[in-house]
């Protein structure tokens, strides 16, 4: 019994990391209906930016995050204003093609600069420390902090969207960009702000990823898949739904790993497919869409 | 006195299709002007060009002494033009109150506040927490008008606010026009109901096939002349 409780806990903690992967994707899709194929690669890019800085500057994770965050936020804003806004329209293909191209470019640039070697960040010993709950049951501090960071970011985004003028502008633009323009909202600027915020989340995800495991330049598409599955599992239109979807995915993988070490990822995909078949709108959709 | 809004020889196109053919239009501060015309006459196209939703030559539209042709719709709202669009176009993911508040996004200074809009439309206070698309047609139109007022515009443009509403509701909505104008608003209404247009406005333009077919003081235009201009046998007065 204790083994299954441990599996459940470890699955939830893994889901915390997946939630960090997914909420940025959920944000961009929610506001712009833009599926960013390069989302996972941007997570890896943020991780490698932190790793690159750590190679030259002796800095802890918090300082690394503080250094990478503004770079990624400005990059996100600029990318949306300069490139992605031009791809948005009635045809959904241009943004898919452009972000697919970006994915390939990012992977190859990272390969050139960092080689194909897997690399990670040091958490200063935190990665091996754990919190004992009862008996043999313990959870790692780093996964716990990751889950709490995901919880905090999800709460912050829900609050931003639900209680601020910018959040209202995000939702209005998502509903009807032309009617939003008639309220004085420059929808292209709003899109750029949404991507900037999504890239802030991506940065947090990238740094936590590099702290928890090693990353290599070609890992991005895999993380995109987890993020995509979490968003669809949770249901579109709600960050809490995405968060819940990520936890479901983490637990499903955890159970799979417990049944057989080779089945973890597969069971996650199977649960995703099962939910898609039985409840295509996701587990916790928001009715506004 | 110079016009608050003036268009000179305004043309508009949808691709290769020309929808407006040299529209000369003006409205002075404090006036209420109606634009009438049959479906396809060019009324909505005219509003789209004025509000920046459709491209216009830069110097053909002048608002408050400034050429606004070619500006984005968002920039034109900042200049002081707000529109109540045809079909209301409320945001379904926003509550009624949030729909109102989004109207004040530009933070233009003026007499209109949320409290002032609730004074004008007390019925909205009861339903403020409901999603925009859960309101009745009349309530939705009140929200659309209140949303435009919260932009604190100098010029309010209403596109077919009576569409799909009962006569009682339409009368109530038009009954709020004097209160709005007392706050210094200038108003353009596009209206299919000629009777309402004549009763509630100072001047009237009739559009026909992308041209002005008749214009004059609303109270002085004979119904026969309006009918002729509306249905196609009129000439610009």
Structure characteristics:
heterodimer, A: 289 residues, two-stranded antiparallel ribbon, 11 helices, 2 strands, B: 237 residues, alpha/beta, 6-stranded mixed β-sheet, globular
Show the helix and strand layout.
The complex is a heterodimer of chains A (289) and B (237).
Chain A: H1 2-32, H2 39-56, H3 61-87, H4 93-114, E1 130-134, E2 137-140, H5 141-163, H6 165-175, H7 177-181, H8 187-212, H9 220-234, H10 239-259, H11 264-278
Antiparallel strand pairs in A: 1-2
Helix pairs in contact in A: 1-5, 1-8, 1-9, 1-10, 2-3, 2-4, 2-8, 2-9, 3-8, 5-6, 5-8, 6-8, 9-10, 9-11, 10-11
Chain B: E1 5-14, E2 17-27, E3 32-36, H1 43-50, E4 61-63, E5 66-67, H2 73-79, E6 81-84, H3 96-102, H4 114-120, H5 123-126, H6 137-149, E7 155-159, H7 167-175, H8 177-182, E8 186-190, H9 194-200, E9 203-208, E10 211-217, H10 223-231
Parallel strand pairs in B: 3-8, 3-9, 6-7, 7-8
Antiparallel strand pairs in B: 1-2, 1-4, 4-5, 9-10
Give an overview of the whole structure.
The complex is a heterodimer of chains A (289) and B (237). The model of chain A has no long low-confidence stretch (mean pLDDT 93). The N and C termini of chain A lie far apart (41 Å). With 289 residues, chain A is mostly helical. In chain A, strands 1-2 form a two-stranded antiparallel sheet. Helices cover 74% and strands 3% of the residues of chain A. The longest helix of chain A is centred in the N-terminal third of the chain and has 31 residues. In chain A, helix 1 runs parallel beside helix 5. With 237 residues, chain B is of the alpha/beta class. In chain B, a hairpin with a 2-residue loop joins strand 4 and strand 5. The model of chain B has no long low-confidence stretch (mean pLDDT 90). At the A-B interface, helix 6 and helix 7 of A face helix 2 and helix 3 of B.
């Amino acid at each position: 019994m204790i083994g299954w409780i441990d599996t459940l806990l470890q699955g939830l903690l893994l889901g915390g990391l997946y939630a960090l992967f997914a909420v940025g994707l959920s944000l961009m899709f929610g506001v712009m209906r833009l599926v960013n194929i390069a989302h996972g690669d941007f997570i890896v890019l943020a991780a490698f930016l932190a790793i690159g800085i750590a190679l030259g500057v002796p800095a802890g994770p918090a300082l690394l995050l503080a250094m990478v965050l503004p770079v990624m936020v400005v990059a996100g804003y600029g990318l949306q204003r300069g490139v992605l806004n031009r791809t948005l329209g009635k045809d959904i293909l241009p943004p898919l093609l452009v972000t697919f191209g970006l994915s390939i470019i990012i992977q190859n640039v990272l390969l050139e600069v960092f080689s194909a070697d897997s690399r990670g960040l040091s958490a200063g010993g935190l990665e091996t420390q754990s919190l004992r709950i009862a008996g043999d049951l313990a959870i790692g501090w780093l996964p716990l902090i990751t889950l709490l960071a995901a919880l905090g970011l999800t709460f912050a985004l829900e609050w931003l969207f639900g209680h601020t003028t910018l959040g209202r502008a995000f939702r209005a633009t998502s509903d009807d960009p032309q009617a939003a323009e008639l309220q004085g909202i420059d929808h292209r600027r709003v899109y750029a702000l949404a991507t900037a915020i999504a890239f802030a989340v991506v940065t947090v995800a990238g740094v936590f990823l590099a702290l928890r495991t090693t990353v290599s330049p070609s890992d991005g598409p895999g993380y995109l898949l987890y993020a995509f599955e979490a968003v669809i599992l949770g249901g579109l239109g709600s960050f809490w739904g995405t968060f819940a979807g990520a936890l479901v995915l983490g637990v499903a993988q955890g159970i799979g790993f417990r049944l057989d070490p080779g089945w973890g990822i597969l069971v996650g995909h199977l649960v995703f497919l099962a939910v898609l078949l039985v409840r295509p709108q996701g587990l916790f959709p928001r009715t506004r869409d | 006195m110079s016009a608050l809004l003036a268009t000179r020889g305004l043309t508009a196109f949808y691709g290769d299709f020309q929808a407006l053919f040299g529209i000369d239009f003006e409205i002075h501060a404090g006036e209420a002007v109606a634009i009438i015309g049959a479906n396809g006459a060019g009324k909505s196209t005219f509003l789209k060009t004025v509000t920046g939703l459709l491209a216009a030559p830069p110097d053909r539209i002048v608002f408050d002494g400034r050429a606004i042709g070619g500006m984005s719709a968002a920039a034109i709202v900042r200049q002081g033009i707000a529109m109540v669009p045809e079909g209301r176009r409320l945001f379904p993911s926003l509550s009624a109150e949030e729909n109102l508040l989004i109207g004040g996004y530009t933070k233009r200074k003026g007499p209109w506040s949320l409290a002032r809009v609730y004074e004008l439309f007390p019925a909205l206070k009861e339903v403020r927490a409901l999603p925009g698309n859960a309101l009745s047609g009349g309530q939705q139109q009140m929200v659309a008008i209140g949303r435009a007022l919260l932009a604190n515009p100098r010029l309010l443009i209403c596109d077919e606010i009576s569409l799909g509403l009962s006569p009682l509701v339409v009368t109530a909505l038009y009954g709020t026009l004097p209160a709005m104008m007392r706050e210094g608003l200038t108003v353009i209404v596009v209206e299919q109901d000629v009777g309402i247009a004549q009763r509630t406005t100072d001047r009237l333009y009739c559009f026909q096939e992308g041209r002005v077919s008749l214009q004059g003081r609303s109270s002085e235009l004979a119904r026969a002349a309006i009918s002729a201009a509306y249905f196609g046998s009129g000439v610009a007065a």
